[in-house]
Amino acid sequence: MPAEEAPVTSAASVPRVRRRHRWRRWLIALAALIVLFLGFTARLFVWPDRSLPPTVDAIVSLDVPYGAVNVAVRLAEQHRAPYLVVSLGRPHSSYGCPAPVAGVKLICFNPDPASTRGEAEFVGKVARRYHWRSIGVVTITPQDTRARLRMSRCFDGPVYVRTTPIPGGAWPHQLAYEWGALFKALVLQRSC
Fold it and tell me: How far is 109 from 90, CA to CA, in rounded Å?
């Protein structure tokens, strides 16, 4: 019986095999990057840390839709803080300062600039004036990480965040916006 001969590989098939292996490595690397990106998105914007201790020195409601002010007022009614700070956003906003809560000092303001950065700057100034040691920020879920970052740059104490949910249809826009805004906060606007 003749010995079996190994298949002869043509010179033209070797580059094809190498190209296939190269594409496979690129696809694996791309899949790993996508999984990493989705993991960071989930941790930073979908399921952030939502801890809020029983009491803080002030509850701060950022100018966001979807009922953040209502949640902040409910927390103030539970006497979770002696101060309630409400950002009205731009001058002549569509809603005004909420009704006062008995036993809680209400501070409403229009940030300058009308952004999370302006809100953090204002809160930092007021916190120094009243000697706050901790704050609880109320915002929408995707903004948690950026709000915490901005506030911690302007306020020396612990910053806790309580989030409010958003409708399912708002997620794609909010996630895209938050990635851009977080990049801006981390790279372009690194100070208070």
Answer: 9
